[in-house]
Design a protein that fits this description.
Length: 574
């Protein structure tokens, strides 16, 4: 009897084992996690890494971005719909209205967060301190094979710090970017340089002479008063048009509000440099000469763009992304000669413009996933999909057969389509969705090739030259170059940064640096304007008062603390 029972038990065990094995085999063919209960944790992890379990059911993910995107149209463009078709995801964006710091403060105080947040270094530190965002390391390991592929060797540079090696954000800077066009410099209309016989443009004195001579010659343009140099001090944009050029014109690279000694790694708040004081002395001289737009320090960005769009603003000092819509309007209005050339002007001949400095890859700014989000896996799966070739090509090139074709293995944009992209880029992006969802999402940079040998980004040296207007080509030829970048010192002429970009150095949550930096920025935002509009004899007193206020606000202690962070970052990256 006991032998019979033993035999029966053995048979039942074998049947159960076969059933379990069969069930596990069937489970591997199912894509929904609901029916995957029979999988081992190892199998699930491997499947996730291969991207087999991505959920494509419809979902709306919410996202707050500290950067406004004026060409985003509610995720309804053709490209956005293709993204939804592939992932099931619709993104509901929220952008700051007014002060970003105020919005962040309200969000953190209420503890009401969206699924994702695009944050810059200051906001990222606040979110870490508030324990509001997740360490993405585990999510990347389980659901981010394409994230790992895109960032590659730079993945460790996304880690927050030596003390806290968590990955809180996927870096927003393009990976492996080739730079073919300057971003920063001093802009002067093509009409001006042509009329003046293409004068030498190396220093700010040359720039000043050209503006003065043309204004004297043409006091009005199209019946309206000619404006010399127009600046923009609206909200945070004061740093771009009023603050940053002081560094660029005196040989400082784009390290935000910091200047790092490349030999000693000593950091200082940039506005305390004597060289930058002399730049503002020059602006004071320009203002008192009547060569600066008197509305510079009160106009809004919209008013600034509208003014430039009339064609009567001879010169600006800005980043190229700030005024692109105004140049689009000028070209559309048949006024290409009133658009701008980019010149690497310096206060003296003793320094070089460092727009093409090699900073390697820096994290700092990027997209975070919040701890309270019930959709953390879906958010990571979406971000991982945005790293795929399918997404990169869609976001940069558009939809095959509509915005480009493939001929002999090469992606081709027709002349007609390319003209639409370049002559009215703002509206083109709104209508198509092309390049709307590149920044701040993870992306490959210009010049990077995919597995087929095609570039991920449409831009190339040849296409940049192709889209130059006739006035541009004439100006470039007159100065003996083919591209605007040729006027600038090359990457090889400038020391490489060992710390990346200083404004992307993560600051520990407990640090006093953000508080002191905010005080210092507030002092300088007001004091710089006062120094520019002061009478020439009052300039030094206004400037010294600002320096005294910085000192009493803790600028020297802040410099020491940031120097320590820079040195830690350099060691961390070795």
């Amino acid at each position: 009897m006991s032998k019979t029972k033993s035999l029966l038990s053995l048979v039942l065990c074998l049947v159960l084992c076969v059933s379990v094995i069969t069930g596990c085999g069937a489970g591997k063919n199912k894509q929904t996690s609901k029916d995957d209960n029979t999988k081992s944790n190892v199998e699930k992890k491997e499947d996730d890494k291969k991207g087999t379990d991505i959920d494509t059911s419809p979902i709306t993910l919410t996202m707050f971005s500290v950067d406004v995107n004026p060409v985003e149209t509610g995720f309804q463009s053709p490209v956005a719909k293709k993204i939804t078709e592939a992932t099931g995801v619709t993104i509901e964006f929220e952008y700051p209205v007014g002060d970003v710091a105020q919005k962040m403060g309200i969000m953190i105080a209420s503890k009401e967060y969206p699924d994702m947040i695009f944050a810059k270094t200051q906001e990222l530190t606040q979110l870490v301190q508030a324990d509001a965002i997740v360490d993405l390391t585990s999510l990347i390991e389980q659901h981010g094979p394409n994230v790992e592929n895109l960032y590659g060797e730079y993945l460790n540079r996304l880690r927050f710090s030596q003390e806290d090696p968590s990955i809180y954000a996927l870096g927003a800077s393009p990976v492996d970017e080739e730079t073919w066009a300057p971003v920063n410099g001093f802009q002067l209309q093509h009409a001006v340089v042509k009329d003046l016989g293409f004068p030498k443009l190396e220093t700010l004195e040359d720039y000043e002479n050209a503006i003065r001579e043309y204004m004297k010659k043409y006091p009005t343009i199209d019946g309206q008063p000619t404006i010399g140099l127009s600046l923009l001090a609206d909200d945070w944009r004061w740093l771009i048009s009023v603050g940053n050029p002081a560094g660029f014109a005196t040989g400082a690279p784009d390290d935000g509000n910091w200047f790092i000694n490349p030999k000693t790694y000593e950091a200082k708040y940039r506005f305390t440099r004597e060289e930058e004081k002399e730049y503002y002395r020059w602006l004071n001289h320009m203002y008192n000469e009547g060569l600066i737009d008197p509305d510079s320090f009160v106009q809004t960005w919209d008013q600034y763009i509208a003014k430039i769009s009339t064609g009567r603003v001879l010169a600006i000092a800005d980043a190229n992304w700030e005024f692109g819509s105004a140049e689009d309007a000028l070209r559309a209005d048949g006024k290409a000669e009133r658009t701008y050339g980019m010149y690497p002007l310096q206060l003296t001949k003793d320094s070089k413009h460092q727009d093409f400095r090699d900073v390697g890859y820096s994290g700092g700014n990027g997209i975070c996933i919040t701890k309270d989000s019930p959709n953390q896996v879906r958010a990571m799966q979406f971000l991982d999909w945005m790293c795929t070739d399918e997404a990169q090509i869609l976001n940069n090139w558009g939809i095959e057969g509509i915005h480009y074709t493939v001929e002999d293995g090469k992606r081709v944009v027709s002349d007609e389509e390319y003209k639409k992209r370049t002559t009215d880029g703002t509206n083109y992006k709104k209508e198509t969705g092309i390049e709307v969802y590149t920044h701040p999402f993870p992306r490959w940079g210009r010049g990077k090739l995919d597995s087929t040998g095609n570039p991920y980004v449409v831009d190339s040296v040849d296409l940049i030259k192709q889209r130059y207007t006739e006035p541009e080509k004439e100006v470039l030829k007159a100065y003996g170059v083919e591209m605007w970048k040729d006027l600038y010192p090359s990457r090889d002429e400038i020391p490489k940064s060992d710390w990346g970009a200083a404004f992307l150095v993560n600051i520990p949550a407990e640090s006093e640096i953000p508080v002191i930096l905010e005080r210092c920025d507030s002092i300088m935002r007001q004091s710089i304007v006062q120094s520019i509009i002061a009478k020439p004899g009052e300039f030094d007193d206004v400037w010294q008062k600002a320096m005294d206020e910085l000192k009493s606000s803790g600028v020297e202690e802040m410099n020491k603390d940031f120097t320590n962070l820079v040195n830690k970052q350099i060691e961390f990256w070795k």
